[in-house]
Please model this.
Amino acid sequence: YSKMGRALKAVEYYQKSLVVKREINDMNGEARCRVRIGLEHLSLGDLNDAYAEFKGALKIFESLEDDNGIAICYENLGDTFMKMGDIREAIHAYERCLPIKVETWDKVGEAQCLDNLGLAHYSLNELAKAAEYYEQSLAIWKSEGEKHALMTCCESLGGVCFHMDEHIRSIECYVQYLTLSQEVGDGASDHEILLRLGLSNAAIGEYSVSLEFLRQAMAFYIELGDMKNRTTCLQEIGRVLGKTGEIQEGMSALEQALKLRMESGDKQGIADCGIEIGLLHYNDGANRQAREH
Model:
């Protein structure tokens, strides 16, 4: 029932199993059953019930000195706290899980825990700490040859580095992501990475490279019918063209973006485009048009 997505039915049968486990005094089986029940509650968004099951299982595993079970409980408690929005408690749980993964030589589990810590610190805008954890997990995923997990980590670390203005590292991560996506044949998020590469290269003044990536991204968004991100690409292209001195081409791109923003009713986007167009007019010496925008 769990694999069929019928969580409530799964809980019903796990509860029946739990009764038997208690009757025969199978403490390990009881704890593992409670973990399964907790996971079903977590999938249903019943966070308090999930917390209660994981906490109960943890108490049993600790009495049995079962390190693997203890680590599983702390990891699941961390996930539960994340969904509750209690990020500090999530970090505390993941930090309790991590040394057990290291001590038991569970490299995949260690990397997953490091990724969880990276995400938690990123959620708190603690970017340097997030980057530190992602760098550690990146090294493990690479050594383990786990390409899909490595792709996800590259994307996450690239985003963190971009927000820290460490654009060279951000670009390295995104380029590695694209290389991996070609190797595994999974280009589902390539358009997003191309857009980010465009932004990162623009941030370090590599405008011609930036335009190449932005135009590739826009072609994807046109094909996908994604008007919002197509508009974002147009606006960024216009901004970059303005910085290269191609004022008229930049103006054309920004005016197309402005039109699309107006059609979608995006007031903030309209304002941003207006400012960008005004700046281009000002740089071109057209002060009246600059004031109008």
Residues 78 and 90 are 4 Å apart (CA to CA). The radius of gyration is 25 Å. The mean pLDDT is 93. The chain is about 85% helix and 0% strand.
